[in-house]
Amino acid sequence: MAEKLKIKLSIADRVYPLTIDPSQEEGLRKAAKNIEQLAKKFEQNYAVRDKQDVLAMCALQFASKIEQKSIDKQEDNSEVTERLKALEQIVDSKLSII
Q1: Beta bridge partners of 14
Q2: What is the DSSP string of 12-47?
Q3: Contact criterion met (CB below 8 Å) for 20 and 7
Q4: How far is CA 34 from CA 8, 9, 37, 69, in A?
Q5: Average pLDDT, rounded, for the chain
Q6: pLDDT for 98
Q7: Degrees, nearest 5: CA angle 46-71-86
Q8: pTM surpassing 0.85?
């Protein structure tokens, strides 16, 4: 069992101490960096009252990206399934001739 790693991440002017698996560190640091960058962008471009508003906007942005990827993947899977069915029908029709 790997040793746990203690790190501190700063998000929206707050420090969050975390105890994590070492394999999670890079992903968590990148995620925190992305949140910070997006929060700064929102603060510069929109009239926001406080950090909670900025963080809510960040959460919505990231969640919508995840949901859209899921929708796109489902659409891609449906298209692939339809193509496979069409190929299967072609193969079946050719095999029935033999």
Answers
A1: 11
A2: TTEEEEEEE-GGGHHHHHHHHHHHHHHHHHHHHHS-
A3: yes
A4: 16, 12, 5, 18
A5: 91
A6: 65
A7: 150
A8: no
User: Phi-psi region for residue 33, left (φ > 0), alpha (ψ -120 to 50) or beta?
Assistant: alpha
Distance, CA of 74 to CA of 59 (rounded, Å): 23
> What CA–CA distance (Å, rounded) separates 70 from 75?
9
| pLDDT tens, residue by residue, 62-75 | 999 999 999 988 88
Q: Which amino acid is at 79?
A: E
Candidates 77, 45, 78; CA nearest to 61 is 45
Contacts of 6 (CB under 8 A, 6+ apart): 17, 18, 19
Q: Could you tell me what percent of the chain has a pLDDT over 70?
A: 98
The residue-averaged pLDDT of 34-48 equals 92
